[in-house]
Amino acid sequence: MRIKSSVVCLTVDDVPTSSKFLADHFGYVEQMSAAGFASLAREDGGVDVVFHARGLEVLPPELRDVRVAGTIVAFVVDDLDAEQDRLRAEGVEPSLPIREEPWGERLLLVTDPNGVVYELAEWAEAPSGR
């Protein structure tokens, strides 16, 4: 199998709000959209993100009314402190400010108005094999 790209699909109540948050604060560009749907990508080839509106008929019946929950979209960054400062300057207050885990990961969390959680992380030491 050859994977050409990766996409995460998230079900939210308000697609335009989540799409705008991802574009405004994480540099994503909306590639296409329609009623109840938006697909976003980054030029650098990071994971694409698709937002589906809750209740959208393209979703399997058992998932149509299930909003994103328990999912974290994570981005590894070069300068976590600078990213936290940038987000705060843009009016986004971290839902979890920077902290360092015992295994060497530094991270912060931000949450969009629909409850989509984004983690920004950097490694105090690069994990072996990377």
Automatic annotation (TrEMBL):
Keyword Signal attributed: no
Tagged with keyword Oxidoreductase: yes
Pfam families: Glyoxalase
Stretches assigned to the VOC domain: 2-123
Domain of life: Bacteria
Gene3D superfamilies with a match to the protein in the record: 2,3-Dihydroxybiphenyl 1,2-Dioxygenase, domain 1
GO molecular function terms listed in the Swiss-Prot or TrEMBL record: dioxygenase activity
Sorted UniProt keywords: Dioxygenase, Oxidoreductase
InterPro entries: Glyas_Bleomycin-R_OHBP_Dase, Glyas_Fos-R_dOase_dom, VOC_core
Designated name of the protein: Glyoxalase/Bleomycin resistance protein/Dioxygenase superfamily protein
